[in-house]
Design a protein that fits this description.
alpha+beta, Hypothetical protein af1432, Alpha-Beta Plaits, 2 domains, four-stranded mixed beta sheet, 11 helices, 4 strands, 55% helix, HD/PDEase_dom
């Protein structure tokens, strides 16, 4: 992945992203998240690469929604700018999984309290105190609500939840895989070849998933489908799947 959206960042969003990516505490938490999630529990990557993929895809989805006339929540409710919402999205996406360093169970809550001081420290360099605190709560909401079962209440949070679900190409499943098993989980996880995010026609955002075989539909439903269901932005997202070399067109998947 070339992280084109991250590379296109400028101004304060770029500075804040660079601070996050170089922050010793953040990098250590991400490293420990992989020791816990991958090494001890058998999940796939929940470390720095996952953070970058989710951040990149979240930026892309947010930009598409804004281009299509859907105003981010911080702009609408707090009179912020699109740049402010972009910063909220970047920080929430990058930090959403660091709580795995504590435990996979309720990791969304662990991520929120581990992130708070990091977020405040960085934001106070660029914003006045009140605005920094406002943005902190929005970021913490996005982190807390990225897990299934908790409804995202802002556009920014929903974007992060959906972006989290898009990191599911083969070798990167969000579902724990038994390496010695040959079941629907393992077959499906190995079937997702590519995920493409683009502007849609009927709905603002179109996600295309290219599969090597139809077993990948299970992965789409269980991973991306659940994220979309709880994102609060379900009405803005369409998902299409195509089995590579078997079917010439994408077929829409309804959740």
């Amino acid at each position: 992945m070339n992280y084109e959206e991250i590379k296109s960042l400028t101004g304060i969003p770029k500075k804040i992203y660079n601070e996050l990516s170089k922050n010793k505490k953040v990098n250590t938490f991400l490293k420990m998240s992989n020791i816990m999630a991958v090494g001890r529990l058998g999940y796939n990557d929940h470390g720095k690469t996952h953070s970058k993929i989710v951040t990149n895809n979240a930026i892309k989805i947010l930009k598409i929604l804004y281009k299509k006339g859907i105003k981010p929540s911080f702009m609408k409710d707090c009179k912020g700018s699109f740049e402010d919402s972009l910063v909220i999205t970047i920080m929430g996406a990058y930090l959403h999984d660091i709580g795995n360093a504590i435990h996979r169970d309720i990791h969304h809550l662990h991520s929120a309290y581990l992130s708070m001081n990091i977020i405040e420290e960085i934001l106070k360099k660029y914003y006045d105190e009140e605005k920094a605190y406002q943005m902190t709560t929005e970021i913490l909401h996005a982190i807390y609500s990225h897990s299934e079962g908790i409804m995202s209440l802002t556009i920014e949070a929903g974007v992060i939840a959906v972006a989290d679900g898009t990191d599911m190409t083969k070798g990167r499943s969000r579902i724990p895989i038994c390496k010695k098993c040959y079941d629907i989980h393992s077959v499906s996880a190995a079937s997702v070849e590519k995920v493409i995010i683009k502007e849609g026609e009927e709905k603002p955002v179109k996600i295309e998933v290219i599969l090597s075989n139809e077993a990948g539909i299970f992965q789409i439903q269980e991973v991306l489908g659940e994220k979309i269901k709880w994102s609060g932005i379900k009405d803005y997202i369409s998902v299409y799947a195509k089995v590579e070399k078997e079917k010439p067109v994408f077929e829409e998947i309804n959740f």
